[in-house]
Amino acid sequence: MHPFLNKTCSIHRKSLSYYSHLINHCFSIKSLDLAEVIHAQLIKVGLNGYTFLGNRFIDLYSQFGTVEYACNVFDDISYKNIVSRNIYLNGLLRFGHFDGARSLFDEMPERDIVSWNSMVSGYVSCGYFDQALKLFMEMQNASVRPNGFTFSILMSLVSCAAHSKQIHGSMIRSGVYLSNVVLGNSLINMYGKLGLIDYAFVVFSTMEELDIVTWNSLISACCRLGYVELALNQFCLMRALGYSPDEYTMSTVMTAGSDLQSLDVGKQFFAICLKAGFLSNTIVLSATIDLFSNCNRLEDSVRVFVEQDRWDSALCNSMISSYARHGFGEEALRIFKFTLTKDCRPNEFTLSSVVSSISGFTGEQGSQVHSLVVKLGFESDALVASSLVDMYCNIGLIDPAIKIFTGMGARDLISWNTIILGLTRNGRVVETLDVFEKLLRKGPPPDRITLADVLLACNYGGFVDEGMAIFSSMKEDYGVMPGNEHYACIVDLLCRAGKLREAMNIMETMPYEPGFLIWKSLLRGCAIYGEVNLAEKVAERMTELEPQSSLPYMVLARVYEMCGKWEGVIRLRTTMKQKGEKKLIGCSHVVIKNYVYTFNADQLLHCGGKDIYLVLQLLIWEMEDDGYVNLKHDKLSSDGE
């Protein structure tokens, strides 16, 4: 080589090394200003067209989000290789310039696996799942061999069993997953999310290498699908094989113990966490609080929470939900107020728990929390919105509940079920059926809870034909086998309509013995329509199921009274006295200025209750004088004493 050329190349190498070092410094200190100064020097000395330096600057500007700068650098590069295009493609996709990225991808003279992976990942991040799968097929047609990253992207977007099995088959043909523990773990997660627990175990059994993430994925899949005891068995097997659980393992099995409501199992897990030092982890502590709460040991949940002496959002969420679950709404609100003073920003789970805890309180408190939800920007969150809908429905304010539901952007099945049940409980059964029709047209497929709530609406509204049509098509149209709650609704509906024979026919087709509530519906129907013989048989069956219940005697006595069989009435009342049965007293609640007044059927539990009855008596006298009512005062007076 000519000495001059050799000297020139040496100068260029030193320049490239110098500027590469400066670019690395920009990466480390994350300084856009310094990057712009160095870039200006490159342009000044004429090195901005060098491929290596240009690629580094595209990557640098992409990290800072200044895509227009990256575009200028890309245009200045004299020779653009595949690395230049891949870096620029990633930068465009990272900051949402999808159209530009697609144009660049289509114009690329050559594409490697990085190019295809970037584009598939871009489709997924933008929510274009079908296009991502289509592009994956194009990649295979172009004879580009997918790698582990390709499959990990695809497994993150799979939503049906058919696609999952196709991807798994491609992985087997490529031979990439048996020796790749990360891909094996992803397969277990994928099958767990799709409910294919058998396939998850097949993947687990064929993996050449296992790690703690593998076990966690399998245990989590079992818990998610309701196989709680199977999850605990895998945990025991994991420890027997010498694998040490981590914080995620313990939080998962704590949740499993919580679902089982087994205090003995929970104590064992708590001991393991204490011994391993996991109680400093907030996720484990939150799972511990939930476990004790679900096992009806709220005092232990409170003790765990208080001993931490810190205000963490996850711990506060668990404690708020625990108080709400046990009916201590005021305590839940108290903790929530403390979280606001401790700069512990509430999230959607906090607000949902708080809303649930005040569902039995006044509308004023609900409106205050609702205002806070709007202020914090969570009104569009499906979980919080569903809790608000449920709260307003529980206190009888159905119109605000409908308004919130209508304004929800994305509605999951929980949202639909909440408004359907709320409308039903508030007597808006016609609107319930309208919402159900909208769900069938626009929403996710209904589940057993949806159908039970709709059948309840048909029951309340006396819609026999509609209820029978829904009940008869449950398995065929919706893939839901009728459960006890569905049979109870449809039997009660038929009995209220006087179709006792049809109700008995349905009871005979049940795959299991009808429960007490179903027999109760049939007995009520017998009482309404005077079916004495059938009522006696039903009452006898009910006393066999629940010998301690006085309901069959009371209803049968009413049937005898209606038919004039007074000897039967006397016999039943004598039997009830011998059994020591006591009549249950109904009660109601009235909230006045944040104070809850409880009214029993035979008294008023309130200081000065006798005075209230005196005022009520005066009002009744005035109503009688005006000709509105005609009541006997002695009965009211005796009740108030």
Automatic annotation (TrEMBL):
InterPro entries: E_motif, PPR_At4g14850-like_plant, PPR_rpt, TPR-like_helical_dom_sf. Pfam families: E_motif (PF20431), PPR (PF01535), PPR_2 (PF13041). The keyword Calcium does not apply. GO terms for molecular function: RNA binding. PPR repeats lie at residues 81-111, 112-146, 211-245, 312-346, 412-446. NCBIfam families: PPR. This is PPR domain-containing protein/PPR_2 domain-containing protein/PPR_3 domain-containing protein. It comes from Cephalotus follicularis (Albany pitcher plant). The lineage of its organism: Eukaryota, Viridiplantae, Streptophyta, Embryophyta, Tracheophyta.
